[in-house]
């Protein structure tokens, strides 16, 4: 079913795919909700800010390949598109994504929103770095 | 990891769990994005309206058990909480959820937003009906 959505030959084609970004938006928010719930021990969830995902992808070498100037929204879309590609291509499962986030997401119930965003960006960066090898080279 | 989130003994306890609803919000939006993308053949995604999920759950017998008056937001939360419960309890997979939505989601690229919402409510209703047997009785 998903083959036609992941025919990209290059990483920059993935990062600039706004349709994939829409699917990835749902994936990323769902996994973040699960990871935050597990870390805090309370079921919770809210939309991840663009600035968090932008910070995550800009900290990795893949970002240079996007080939254009981006605002936080475009950079976050690129992150989301990559995660959608990895999931649709069966390179990563929800469970693996969430487990890696949990392992690298250091917050507690007293963490400020600002520090939570920094911690989340760090965790998302590590997930991306771990799976860069599974993208078209 | 998720055991403490799904200790409910009754369906109404699930439907009134606002934490589960937050996790379910991400799950439902992700699955809807995947199903709509598959049906239209174009990667896409947007948030499902509360009114759609409210219509879906109000059309099933389980809804009477919520035990209080609800607006569309509360009814949608109940739907989302149930889907989160089913997924966390490993009663349904993303793949099964999306497959059932696709099979019952009759839209094309020319469908109006209003008719899409009706079609989506119908598809979500069928998913819920199919899995009611897996909830605490």
Keywords for this entry:
homodimer; 137 residues; mainly alpha; 6 helices; 0% strand
Quick structural summary:
The structure is a homodimer of 137-residue chains. Chain A has 137 residues and is an all-alpha fold.
In words, what does this structure look like?
The structure is a homodimer of 137-residue chains. Chain A is mostly helical. Chain A is built from 6 helices and no strands. The longest helix of chain A has 23 residues. The first copy, chain A, is globular and about 45 Å long. The two termini of chain A are 24 Å apart. At the A-B interface, helix 2 of A face helix 2 of B.
Low-confidence stretches of chain A: none
Radius of gyration of chain A: 14 Å
Largest sheet of chain A: none
Mean pLDDT of chain A: 96
| H/I helix tally of chain A | 6
The helix content of chain A, as a percent range, equals: 55-70%
- Name the chain pair whose interface involves the most residues: A-B, 29 and 29 residues
Number of strands of chain A: 0
Strand content of chain A: under 5%
């Amino acid at each position: 079913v998903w083959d036609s959505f992941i025919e990209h030959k290059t990483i920059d084609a993935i990062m600039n795919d706004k349709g994939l970004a829409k699917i990835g938006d749902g994936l990323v928010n769902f996994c973040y909700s699960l990871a935050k719930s597990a870390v805090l021990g309370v079921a919770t969830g809210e939309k991840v800010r663009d600035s968090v995902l932008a910070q995550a992808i800009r900290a990795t070498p893949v970002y240079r390949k996007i080939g254009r100037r981006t605002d936080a929204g475009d950079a976050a879309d690129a992150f989301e598109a990559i995660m959608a590609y990895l999931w649709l291509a069966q390179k990563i499962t929800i469970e693996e994504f969430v487990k890696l986030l949990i392992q690298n997401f250091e917050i507690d119930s007293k963490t400020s929103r600002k520090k939570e965003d920094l911690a989340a960006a760090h965790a998302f960066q590590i997930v991306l770095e771990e799976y860069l090898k599974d993208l078209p080279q």
